[in-house]
Amino acid sequence: MEEHLKDREREARELRRREADWNYINSLPPRLRAALVFYIETGDLYVAAKIAGLRVEEFNELRIRAGIPHVN
Amino acid sequence: MEAIADTSFLVDWARFSHRDLLFRVFRVVWIPEDVLNEVQSERTLMWIADRLASGDMSLFPLLPEYRDRALRLVELSRRGPTRGLDFPEAYCIAVAEDRGYIALSENGAAYAAQFLYTTARVWRAYEVLWELRSRGLVPDDAIFTYQEETKHKFPQRDIQRWRDCRS
């Protein structure tokens, strides 16, 4: 089961990395950029929103604009 | 059945055109009070306010016994093999495991928790859609509609499982 769960995390991370609009992400201010990169690596919406200084839903709109799928 | 939903579930589900079908599966969906601080769009706020008014949703307060259990779950998860829980989803799991609710979350750590260290059941939108399809309330392509409308993606193996079990 542990390996299966780790595989799921790996697959999700790769999908987020692959589909992200990196040009858009790199054009953003450092705080938002850092938050999106954190999100891509972890899928953690709550902490990413805290890094960005946004509410969770606000950050969710940002991740959509950045082309990053919410994978789970 | 009753459920308790975290923000990660609600902000995606609120974008879904068939979002009110959630209440054909759950008699009440409890919302931790903190969730209201994390939503901001008119679409989501109006939906939640409307459903609170109708009684389909209800606010769940921050109670010390569940707060303590949630913190223990966060600590426990940090020692595990997968990514750790954050407090909001841990709180939903703490409530769900004690009260027999289903925890609704799109957080990967919450999904993993049910296989590792909690007796609570954790459903994603995927499981809700599966339940809706099994009751004949959504068509076979509902999962693709959901993905398109919410920009949410389910793992390939789950999509395959969905296709393999057509209603």
Describe this structure in words.
The complex is a heterodimer of chains A (72) and B (167). Chain A has 72 residues and is an all-alpha fold. Chain A has one domain. Chain A is built from five helices and one strand; from the N terminus they run αααααβ. Chain A has helices at 2-19, 22-26, 30-42, 45-52, 56-65, and one strand at residues 70-71. In chain A, α3 (30-42) runs antiparallel to α4 (45-52) and α4 (45-52) crosses α5 (56-65). Chain B has a five-stranded parallel β-sheet with strand order 3-2-1-4-5. Chain B is globular, with a radius of gyration of 16 Å. Chain B has 167 residues and is of the alpha/beta class. Chain B has one domain (2-164): Rossmann fold, CATH 3.40.50. In chain B, α7 (108-116) links the parallel β4 and β5 (121-123). In chain B, 56% of the residues lie in helices and 13% in strands. Chain B contains ten helices and six strands. At the A-B interface, α1, α4, α5 and β1 of A face α1, α7 and β6 of B. β1 (70-71) of chain A pairs parallel with β6 of chain B.
What is the count of distinct domains of chain B?
Answer: 1
Judged by helices, strands and strand pairing, the structural class of chain B is alpha/beta
Q: Helix and strand succession of chain A?
A: HHHHHE
Percentage of residues in strands of chain B: 5-15%
Secondary-structure arrangement, i.e. CATH architecture of chain B: 3-Layer(aba) Sandwich
- The fourth-level CATH homologous superfamily of chain B is 5'-nuclease
What's the end-to-end separation of chain B, in Å? Answer: 22 Å
Largest sheet of chain B: 5 strands, parallel
In terms of quaternary structure, what is this? heterodimer
So how many helices of chain A? 5
| Alpha carbon gyration radius of chain B | 16 Å
Overall outline of chain B? globular
